[in-house]
Amino acid sequence: MSTPVRTGLDVEAILSDLYESEINASISRLWDGEIDVKLGDPLNGYVAEGKVSTFAEAAARLRDQACSHYPDSEFARKYGGFV
């Protein structure tokens, strides 16, 4: 049996690494099919917000924004080369 080829981003890994670096983020699906992406939280404020079409785009946006807004984080050290 052959192993399936993985393409795209590992959404679960990016979300897990954001959590491990204590960077707040949210992804939610809206009624119209768009996906709302926010970096930050309601208590401390959002540093980046946007809408995308796929979960892979959401993960890429969170990755890029987290590296930009938290350049000294462990997350940015891991993913900085992708930005």
Topology:
Layout: H1 11-20, E1 25-29, E2 35-41, E3 45-52, H2 55-69, H3 74-79
Antiparallel strand pairs: 1-2, 2-3
Shape assignment: globular
Rg over CA atoms: 13 Å
Overall average residue pLDDT: 89
Q: Provide the helix percentage.
A: 25-40%
Biggest β-sheet: strands ordered side by side in the sheet: 1-2-3
Classify the fold: give the CATH topology: Double Stranded RNA Binding Domain
Unreliable stretches covering 5 or more consecutive residues: 1-7
Strand content: 15-25%
**The first-level CATH class name:** Alpha Beta
**What would you say the CATH architecture is?**
2-Layer Sandwich
- The helix/strand order is HEEEHH
Structural class: alpha+beta
Main pleated-sheet profile = 3 strands, antiparallel
Give me the count of strands. Answer: 3
Q: Cα distance, first to last residue?
A: 35 Å
Q: How many structural domains can be distinguished in the coordinates?
A: 1
| Tally of alpha and pi helices | 3
Describe the overall structure.
By secondary structure, the protein is of the alpha+beta class. The protein has one domain (11-73): Double Stranded RNA Binding Domain (2-Layer Sandwich), CATH 3.30.160. Helices cover 37% and strands 24% of the residues. Strands 1-2-3 form a 3-stranded antiparallel beta sheet. It starts with 10 loop residues before the first helix and ends with a helix. The model is unreliable at 1-7 (pLDDT under 50).
